Amino acid sequence: MTAVAAAARQYPFVALTVLVGALALALNWTAASAVVQWLLPLYSLGIAVRESVSMVRRLLQREFGLDVLAVTAIIATVAVGEFWASLVIVLMLTGGEALEDFAAGRAQRELKALLSRVPQIAHRFGESGELVDVPVSAVAVGDRLVVRPSEIVPVDAVLISASTSMDESSLTGESMPVEKLAGDLVLSGSVNGSEAVTVTAAARASDSQYQRIVQLVSEAAASKPPLVRLADRYAAPFTLLAVGLAAIAWWLSGDSTRFAEVLVVATPCPLLIAAPVAFMAGMSSASSHGVVVKNAGTLEVLARARTVVFDKTGTLTNGSPEVAGIRPEGGRSEEALLTLVAAAEQYSSHVLAASLVKEALARGYKLPSVTDAREVATHGVTARIGSETVTVGKPAFVAEQAPGLTRLELSSGEAAVYVAIDDQYAGAIVLRDEVRAEAPRMLKDLRKLGIRKTLMVTGDVEQTARKVADELQLSEVHAECLPQDKVRIVHSVTPRPVVMVGDGVNDAPVLAAADVGIAMGAKGSTAASESADIVILVDDLYHVVSAVSVSQRTVSIALQSIWIGIAISVGLMLVAMTGVLPAIVGAGLQEVVDLVTIVNSLRALSLGRKLL
Q: What domains can you pick out in the chain, each with its CATH number?
């Protein structure tokens, strides 16, 4: 009873309509049955007036909605004495919101499940070694925490215990447990295995992976599907058709009741409900497989995409380059060159910088102190080390300090970092970043989905970028691009809509500028994820195909639902024109049409099973 009362408070006009109907049925079998002939039409007309107010407001804003037809049908049925039919139409109108909420709630099941699992408590070691439960928001970087068996990891952390297994299915869609060893990063939202483990917090709760996902999902749930407007575009012609058929039926039969009977079955609830339900279902389905769509409108645009633009490093390539060779000049040793480069690159945010520092430390080299460092975004870094000025970066940048620089011949997947010490060319370090294994298949399947052009825009040098582009048979390649260059290219490229796929901080502007921005969020930067319309939480480029595929199927299902509603309604109108379909029966059949179109929309929930 509590649930019924709560539903009645949330949807009072639905409850009132049901109550009026029940009262009318009860009175119909008593001496007061004449009251029914006043109760039903007065109530129905009251609802029609209420709906008319909002209808007029929308008309003044030049929004012609399908509620015009519903209000007309109520007035028509009351005018010809079909009072029970008018009450059924009122029930459809007042119950439409409740029905939409129910269907959308079913469609958002995966989204709500994710939100309900947000960690609230962390077990933190106190100063004297005791274990204290604290709010997750109170955890600071460096705090030592205990994660108990089957508990959710509260914040991104580094594993201290020897090993454990983590269930990351809510983050990545991967159903198998992932083995973690001491020193590995464990992501918030993962579920610990059968043994308690100790971890060190690597990020605050607000900066952790799970909270980022929750924020994205919340934005997704709050978005409004654009095909609601698309359905409204059918309102004017559909209303004119319905009124025209009703008028013809009245004229041919000479019976005004026939006008009402036709309009009853033309009530357009399917068009108002089915499309948004399909979009929410598609978004839910994608999110359960590691593809978070932040706004429902993105799906409609992505379904029409014709061009896809890719960043190179970390997107088309693995994003974890390794040193493949050290080429010193001027009599310096490999150790001396790598040591100076790694010291300078500590002050760079470029993906290659981390690889160089990691290689030097892995070899046991001690990095000298840096007294001054300055990074020039996408070009390189200049650092003062002892009495020497070390310049590291792209050939053109380094050549400004060392005109004697000579470019190396590189193979596919290789990149070179050039070095100048003071005004002399000191050599180069070659790194290899392999093309992702899934990239060729991804590009092939994108073409099957209707993508006509694929481009690469990258800050890397022309030689390196060209070799990767040729290997993957991309349509175009634009190398040595600054962030503003990438934005300019994406704005000018055709055919449209244009999708941009990237992962780094410098991709954030172009991800925002594209018609649809897709961020590789598993290893990418927070800035890129925040700027993107879609975030792929799995380190697998093939999920770009998954995103395009699910968007096309979702839009297809939404349009199917719209046309199914229109087709069945037109069929029922033609039958009603013959006079064999009483208004009360037609009103009941229209409810069946509602359910058919909504059930069809909910097919989008199963799209996740076909993503990969």
A: 2-109+222-279+552-607 (no CATH), 304-318+435-532 (3.40.50.1000), 326-432 (3.40.1110.10)
